Write a sequence for this structure.
């Protein structure tokens, strides 16, 4: 890796100030950024670790009942402390391996928006609110394609708020090597309807499957998916599966998520 | 009663104490005073002509000691190939030059072009980025059959074409084999791929070169399975350093699996550069570099045909294989698809006529060489797949068809040039049937179906040739080295022993099992025996560890040396006991006179050897140290029968292994626990090949699976609890321990069992699927089911 400055501020304000340096880069758990640096594929002037900011740590319940997770909270903490939203805790409990879960953060994952990551599906599937140092962004507006988000330069995720659904589940079919999601489907049933968010499959990153949402909103059972299908044309096609295979898995995993939803 | 020491005891692996407590001494743990680091600038394109390398700016960067390019190695030998195959016309294979650093052209992604030696690794990497490099890209040759088309781009301009050799075996049998196919009642044919693999030992390769200006001695510390072979190849063929001025040390090595047999450019470079720079030079491979510079394994494309008569007896086998050599010939690459593959095509069956054709092909990919099993997995996979397919076509039980065709009388001379000394194929199959609970399979299948899963049972046999090998035989077959093994047994004055072996342990547990053998022979505690290996300075010339040869060949050398020790010790004891040498017996570490209560302890005899006050100096020399070289008279032939039960999720194509049973015949066993561990590891790698591992290139010669993000290694939760048995034992008849070797069996025997099981599962659901190419990843299985 190339040399860089390192800062570990104790407050959001200090972090934002530190990120004002040209080519500075925020560092969450480093699960993507550190390997990228080791490969010399990025050359930030400064890394600003967000891990020392107490106000960005931990899980709590908001006045509206939403589960609020600090942007620098690692996956293991969410897995153990987000019991108020069991499907979210279970999602976090199955990201990567223990080492990843003890380093990686929710803010880092959502800021990176890897097309095969789990948290984007949970956030979009839950209609979460992405809270930054400057504003609140609805998940529907936040995800803008593979590795692309609504975040501006120097803007950091301080908190993510998940409204708790009546029922929810995440089903991940893993890519055999990386064990990222080859296809991951997060479904959540709210009073005003069902949301279905799919990661791993699309060339455009995480997306909502509108037809499945409509069908499940009127009949929340696996059978409701029968006859529905997605096109493989715009899906990722690689060593681990064609677009058509991924499209097929979207249906299978959606059904399984409905069946398992609790 | 299990023994608590000696041969047959499951002694705990003594070396694990240091490995598991961070006290191992791996090559990367070695750091020399004044050491510099090298970073290799490697080609990121598969095929091209180097038009410009300008290192002038890089050479002036901080910390740079020196930058080397191909021009620094003009006049230096290239990487040698250790085996020359003769083609079916009697002509030698085409053998291209293999430079240390690219000379004018690059021929695969990962080929080293320049080497930057600097004070720190980061400085070396910085400088490498400042090298100006221009390469005119040429079309890449990736697919083997395309490579052999008329007018195909040549990987090597100075060769006739991309065909390394066209090998026919046994060429004289070809017409008879063809006739047998014309006369056959049934012919089953199958086209299949034996997928390319990356070995991925836990420890990446490392090399540290050191040069002592005062004595003109070079030392290479390297992650090798055979330091003497590296010394011989590098000293004699590459750098021109005589053995007495060159020492090669392979200390603790964290896994080899074949890929650390070979002599690599980085080893020669570090040795060369240490002298050129007058500083130690170290290279530690990154995992990313390992994917594009460690020799790969397998990569065969095969058509196999099996002829049967009206009674389902096998009458002939005919195969045509394309074997990928990659861009250059790695050290033993030519031998793998030929002598390590063709000679095993009889398998466990008395097929009278066999013809094997292998076309070895150059492509713009990383060189391919031996990987755990080396040729024998490729032979076993195609044979056991085609036998299974034949059983399904004929509607007969796959086990019954195998049993009907088993070789039952030994020794058995196959039609492919080898003679099996012993075996009991019905015996291992009987054991497998008992372990596998095949009667209970129908109920287990019904249970799986209730859960929406398809269940399949796959069975296969295997035979392998281990204990490589009789030197005179392999010399006739093209080996450019002998394949004996050596041991020096040094008895110290107070009775402890140091055994210096030419074998090398890189995970096999030799320090434990070899000590068990010597301790048993003398009747002393195995903790009195220390095993030393891995350093050419203090071990006799030996050929190293691969091909499941160490206990069979290295162990035999150790037995021979220990016998010499015992014979001399008996002479000393007879003197001390004032008895005839013929009457001296050695038991439980004491020499006694037969029929009397007169005895002398082992330690008294060894002390007398070094303090020869009362000693037959007129008859024998003082001291107690003996060396033996052992050259086997034949290969050994471990065999076995494996069974795999899988569940297939029909909705996703995901295969899970529910049960796996392995019944092996390894002959006599020194340490059953270590043998079980070897089988477990082999099974994990075989199942990895069958389900997960896929080294894939795109049409431009770019490696698609260049990291663990895309190359799927088997993990613990991909594997079931294994049921392993090695109680079927037909001892080898020609080595003193009666041992056969166990290191590769699991990797050889398991892939066909997995694929047979998946095909069984899919056919149980009425799917017309007769074969799926490995790895049987979910997408491939789903595509086959929905094709």
């Amino acid at each position: 890796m190339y040399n860089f400055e390192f800062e570990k501020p104790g407050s959001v304000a200090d972090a934002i100030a530190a990120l004002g340096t040209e080519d500075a880069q925020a560092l969450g758990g480093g699960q993507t950024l550190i390997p990228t640096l080791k490969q010399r594929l990025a050359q930030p002037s400064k890394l600003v670790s967000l891990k020392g900011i107490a106000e960005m740590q931990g899980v709590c319940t908001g006045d509206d009942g939403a589960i609020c997770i600090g942007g620098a909270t690692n996956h293991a903490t969410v897995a153990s402390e987000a019991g108020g939203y069991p499907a979210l805790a279970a999602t976090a409990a199955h990201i990567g391996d223990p080492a990843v879960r003890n380093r990686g953060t929710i803010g880092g994952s959502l800021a990176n928006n890897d097309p095969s990551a789990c948290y984007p599906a949970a956030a979009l599937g839950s209609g979460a609110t992405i809270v930054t140092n400057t504003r609140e962004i609805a998940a529907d507006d936040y995800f803008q394609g593979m590795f692309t988000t609504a975040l501006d330069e120097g803007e950091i995720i301080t908190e993510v708020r998940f409204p708790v659904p009546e029922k929810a589940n995440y089903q991940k079919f893993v890519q055999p090597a990386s064990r990222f999601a080859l296809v991951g489907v997060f479904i959540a049933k709210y009073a005003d309807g069902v949301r279905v968010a799919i990661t791993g499959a699309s060339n455009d990153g995480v997306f909502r499957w509108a037809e499945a949402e409509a069908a499940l909103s009127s009949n929340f059972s696996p059978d409701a998916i029968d006859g529905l299908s997605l096109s493989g044309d715009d899906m990722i096609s690689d060593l681990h599966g064609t677009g058509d295979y991924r499209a097929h898995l979207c249906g299978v995993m959606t059904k399984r998520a409905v069946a398992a939803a609790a | 009663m299990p023994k608590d020491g000696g041969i047959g005891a499951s002694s705990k692996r003594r070396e694990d104490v240091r490995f598991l407590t961070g006290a191992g001494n791996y090559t990367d743990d070695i750091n020399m005073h004044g050491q510099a680091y090298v970073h290799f600038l490697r080609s990121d394109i598969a095929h091209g002509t180097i038009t410009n390398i300008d290192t002038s700016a890089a050479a002036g960067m901080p910390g740079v000691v020196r930058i080397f390019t191909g021009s620094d190695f003009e006049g230096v030998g290239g990487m040698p190939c250790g085996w020359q195959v003769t083609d079916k016309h009697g002509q030698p294979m085409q053998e291209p030059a293999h430079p240390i650093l690219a000379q004018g052209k690059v021929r695969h992604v990962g080929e080293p072009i320049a080497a930057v030696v600097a004070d720190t690794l980061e400085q070396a990497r910085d400088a490498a980025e400042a090298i100006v490099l221009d390469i005119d890209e040429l079309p890449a040759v990736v697919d083997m059959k395309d490579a052999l088309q008329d007018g195909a781009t040549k990987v090597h301009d100075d060769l006739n074409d991309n065909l390394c050799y066209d090998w026919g075996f046994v060429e004289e049998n070809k017409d008879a084999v063809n006739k047998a196919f014309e006369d056959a009642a049934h012919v089953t044919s199958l086209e299949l791929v034996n997928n390319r693999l990356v070995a991925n030992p836990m420890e990446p390769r490392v090399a540290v070169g050191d040069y002592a200006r005062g004595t003109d001695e070079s030392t290479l510390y390297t992650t090798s399975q055979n330091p003497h072979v590296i010394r011989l190849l590098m000293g004699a063929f590459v750098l021109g350093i005589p053995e007495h001025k060159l020492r090669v040390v392979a200390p603790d090595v964290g896994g080899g699996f074949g890929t650390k047999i070979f002599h690599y450019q980085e080893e020669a470079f570090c040795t060369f550069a240490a002298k050129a720079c007058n500083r130690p030079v170290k290279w530690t491979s990154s995992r990313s570099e390992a994917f594009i510079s460690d020799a790969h394994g397998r990569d065969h494309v095969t058509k196999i045909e099996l002829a049967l008569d009206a009674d389902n007896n096998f009458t002939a086998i005919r195969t045509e294989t394309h074997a990928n050599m990659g861009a250059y010939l790695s050290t033993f690459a030519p031998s793998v698809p030929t002598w390590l593959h063709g000679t095993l095509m009889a398998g466990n069956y008395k097929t009278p006529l066999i013809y094997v054709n292998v076309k070895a092909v150059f492509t713009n990919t990383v060189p391919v060489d031996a990987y755990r099993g080396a040729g024998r997995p490729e032979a076993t996979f195609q044979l056991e797949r085609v036998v299974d397919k034949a059983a399904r076509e004929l509607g007969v039980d796959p086990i019954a068809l195998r049993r009907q065709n088993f070789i039952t009388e030994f020794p058995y001379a196959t039609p492919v040039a080898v003679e099996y000394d012993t075996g009991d194929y019905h015996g291992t199959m009987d054991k497998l049937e008992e372990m596998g609970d095949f009667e209970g399979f129908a109920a287990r299948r019904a249970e799986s179906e209730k859960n929406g899963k398809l269940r399949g049972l796959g069975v296969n046999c295997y035979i392998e040739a281990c204990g490589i090998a009789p030197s005179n035989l392999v010399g006739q077959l093209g080996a450019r080295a002998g394949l004996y093994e050596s041991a020096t047994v040094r008895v110290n004055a107070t009775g402890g022993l140091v055994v210096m072996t030419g074998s090398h342990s890189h995970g096999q547990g030799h320090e434990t099992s070899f000590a068990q053998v010597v301790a048993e022979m003398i009747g002393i505690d195995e903790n009195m025996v220390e095993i030393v290996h891995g350093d050419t300075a203090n071990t006799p010339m030996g050929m190293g560890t691969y091909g499941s040869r160490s206990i069979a060949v290295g162990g035999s050398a150790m037995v021979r040396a220990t016998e010499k020790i015992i014979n001399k010790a008996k002479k000393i004891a007879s003197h001390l006991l004032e008895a005839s040498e013929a009457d001296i017996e050695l038991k439980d570490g004491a020499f006694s006179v037969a029929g009397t209560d007169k005895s002398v302890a082992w330690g008294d005899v060894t002390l007398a050897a070094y303090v020869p006050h009362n000693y037959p100096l007129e008859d024998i020399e003082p001291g107690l140290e003996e060396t033996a070289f052992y050259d086997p008279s034949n290969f050994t032939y471990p065999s076995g029968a494996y069974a795999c039960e899988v569940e297939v999720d029909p909705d996703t194509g995901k295969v899970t292994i529910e049960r796996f049973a392995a019944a092996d015949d390894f002959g006599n066993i020194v340490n059953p626990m270590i043998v079980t561990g070897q089988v477990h590891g082999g099974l994990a790698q075989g199942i990895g090949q069958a389900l997960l591992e896929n080294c894939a290139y795109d049409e431009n010669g770019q490696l698609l699976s260049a990291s663990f993000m895309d190359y799927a290694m088997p993990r613990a939760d991909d594997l079931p609890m294994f049921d392993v048995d090695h109680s079927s034992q037909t001892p080898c008849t020609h080595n003193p321990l009666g041992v056969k070797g166990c290191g590769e069996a699991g990797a050889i025997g398991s892939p066909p069992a997995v694929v047979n099981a998946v095909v069984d599962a899919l056919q149980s659901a009425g799917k017309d699927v007769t074969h799926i190419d490995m790895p049987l990843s979910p997408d491939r299985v789903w595509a086959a089911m929905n094709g």
Observations:
- The first helix of chain A runs from residue 12 to 18.
- The first strand of chain A starts at residue 5 and ends at 7.
